[in-house]
Design brief:
The chain is an all-alpha fold. It is built from 13 helices and two strands; from the N terminus they run H-H-H-H-H-H-H-E-E-H-H-H-H-H-H. The longest helix is centred in the first third of the chain and has 36 residues.
Length: about 325
């Protein structure tokens, strides 16, 4: 197990190096951060040249990249061109909002997806099951931004039950600023979490249903039923446990996908997270922030995939890593 984890750590480091290199290479052809910093109205050849020298952008690409790697190994991720602050501080400031949004969304996806997927497999001809499957098709085919706008229209504008934007009242716990400990923060979290989880929930329902239908047709399920076990024990202990492996894989991938692509949801609901930071950084060509953001997402996805792999061995003792 230790050898396996060390191998995965090595793979993660290689991925980070590759991602950072690709980002630096692409940035050579995308916009000029100097113009975003000093503004076109104040730009003269002398000012632009001085700014490029101060930011280190006058050096060759490979020198800039080697300098970034050297600083990163010492824990220095550079400074934001726009915020004039260390990039690490800018990223850390936004992480709590996005992680809380994504975590609540994945909990909604996992709970409803597993429960309703199992229900539609056990009672496939039930009217409620057909309604759930129809809703799942709607969730898969409807863009996230449209789901968000519809939720705002219904619950914020027409019914006036929930706020339409912002994060609400938050509390600070050390370096972590959370909205989960206040009623106002929870109310602001409901709509963006539902919007972000809607597509993933719909996908999970259909996946779990398909896996459950296949598992319930196996011989060992009929054997368990013939022994007189209660139906709910057969479905949950023998059926859901064996159908959960593909669902766990998808949920792990969905967590990384939500984290990396929560941009639309955060923009629609004006959620002050990493997604909105990325959008503003792209507009202003704040390349250090973009590189560190992408590297952070890569690390999280690698860690989540490792956790998913380890969860396999807990659900199925036949799976052993070496």
């Amino acid at each position: 197990m230790l050898a396996y984890m060390l191998r995965r750590l090595g793979e993660t480091i290689l991925v980070l190096v590759a991602v950072s290199f690709i980002c630096f290479m692409i940035f050579q052809y995308l916009g000029d951060p100097v113009m975003a910093v000093i503004g076109y109205e104040h730009s003269t050849p002398e000012i632009v040249a001085r700014a490029r020298e101060q930011l280190g952008l006058d050096r060759p690409f490979y020198v800039q990249y080697a300098s970034f790697i050297g600083r990163a190994l010492r824990g220095d991720l550079g400074r934001s061109y726009v915020h004039i602050r260390p990039v690490g501080d800018v990223i850390i400031e936004r992480i709590p909002a996005t992680l809380e949004l994504v975590t609540v969304s994945i909990v909604i996806t996992a709970a409803l997806g597993l429960l309703l997927g199992m229900y539609t497999a056990v009672r496939p001809r039930n009217f409620l099951s057909k309604s759930i499957l129809t809703t799942s098709i709607l969730g898969i085919s409807t863009p996230t931004f449209l789901i968000g706008l519809l939720l705002i229209l219904v619950f914020a504008v027409e019914l006036n039950w929930l706020p339409s934007s912002g994060r609400g009242t938050t509390k600070t716990l050390g370096m972590w600023r959370t909205g989960l400990l206040t009623i106002d923060g929870l109310r602001h979290l409901v709509l963006p979490a539902l919007a972000l989880s809607f597509y993933q929930f719909a996908l999970t329902v259909r996946l779990v249903r398909a896996e459950m239908l296949e598992v319930l047709s196996k011989d060992y399920i009929r054997t368990a039923q013939s022994k007189g076990l209660a139906r709910h024990k057969v479905v949950i202990k023998h059926g859901l446990r064996n159908a959960a492996l593909p669902a766990i894989t998808i949920l792990g991938l969905q967590f990384g996908e939500m984290l990396g692509f929560s941009i639309v949801t955060e923009t629609v609901f004006q959620w002050p997270g990493l997604g909105r930071l990325l959008i503003s950084s792209i507009y202003s060509s704040d390349n250090p922030v973009i590189v560190v953001y992408i590297m952070f997402i890569a690390v999280v996805i690698a860690v989540v995939n490792l956790v998913v792999d380890l969860a396999y061995s807990l659900l199925d003792p036949r799976i052993v890593y070496s």
